[in-house]
Amino acid sequence: MKKRVLALLLVVAMIASFAAGCGNAPAATNEAPAKTNEAPAKTSDTPAQADDEALKGTLNIFQFKVEINDALIAATKRYMELNPGVKVNLETVGGGDDYGAALRTKMQSSDQPAIYNIGGPQDVIDWAANLEDLAAEPWVANTVSGLLDDVSKDGKVYGMPMAIEGYGFVYNKEIFEAAGIDAASLKTFDQIDTAFAELQTKIDNGELKEKFPALEAVIEYPAKEKWVTGMHTSNVALGQEFANCTEAFNAKEVQFTYGAQLKDLIDLQVKYTTNANNPSALNAVDYSMQAGGGIAIERVAVIQQGNWVFPVINEVDPEVAQKLDIIPLPLKGVSEGNTPIGVPMYWAVNSQCDENTKKIAKDFLNWLYQSEEGMKIVVNDFGFIPPFTNYGDNLPSDPLGQAVSRAANAGTVAPWVFNGCPTSWAENVLGAEIQAYLGGEKTWDDAIATAQQAWADARK
Questions:
Q1: Distances (CA, A) of 433 to 51, 229, 277
Q2: Which of 76, 185, 244, 249 is the most exposed place for a label (fewest CB within 10 A)?
Q3: Which of 308, 306, 292 is nearest to 383 (CA)?
Q4: Cα dihedral: 415, 421, 424, 426 (round 10)
């Protein structure tokens, strides 16, 4: 599998005299809202270790994946039952909030987390002062081949892969079937464009109104979420310019070889939204409006997202969640019928914590991903495609996880390379330039030129 990485913001200052406990102080206030878990530890008749070896202390976790927040809270409570001497605090910042900015703030405070999320090569540099070597951990030997390349340096391993994920056009099979469209056969740009046009016509004519009364457009495109546009949509083009994220990481310039095709893919999505005649309005459309307020209530039939969105849809309407599948994202005439697949983020352990806290952090990650109980949590409760080879029959049961697994097994895979872009460039530069294009403030060529210059400046 090809390499991938996700860049975070650069740590510009660190607390020189950091307290030994690493996160035992009261939580700092972040710019982005956070969900917290501060449930007291519960006792258990079956502790994970003998009393003389029992873990004792506080473990603070700071993570970005909002979709698993509730399930992760439940997992931390279970871990506390097994380890009554440990208290776990969880903060989740993500979705529409900037995890990178929040993490930078967190790391500049006196309550640095013991476990947090990083991307790959750029993050290994940016967070070097806070990365514990995990090469000796037992899960390393069970990791899918190649998944540690982007968080490894000089024989050291700085991250545990969170999951394997894939994305594309997540669609409602029942809506397409009602419209007489065979969505499973859609591969090329032109096929998808034709099918979307046919579906939009039937929506506009009211042909699907009786069965799907809320349906108003084919797709919703959340341009407010710069990670959707600047990372995921754009990756379809950048993944053909660069073979993998390491090549992107080493590139001094970005040519946008397939910039015209990227524009086509963006315009395709805009054309079938309710804001087709006013693209600037898409800059106010967020993740929540696209997912929970879009495809989950059958207001739209398609969204550009990945298998991670299943828990969100399932929480709103389990019946709708079971109707979902994925159409591959096309780069017109270049890469068609392929699904971008990669590692979204890695779990990292803060090397600035004291040895006892680091021991708890490593134990928690090993329990979560390598114990029999933890494996079931990762697959069934998180809905993750496991990045490890020893999961046996513990495989995804949800339709989106199965769709990504099918693509991976078939080899119809496109690489994730946005993680090799300069720090924050994909989201805060390219994503912002796409917003300017949609808002009519810039031409496509001007937006791309600005993004090219920013890449070159960052790599000087």
A1: 57, 10, 20
A2: 185
A3: 308
A4: -60
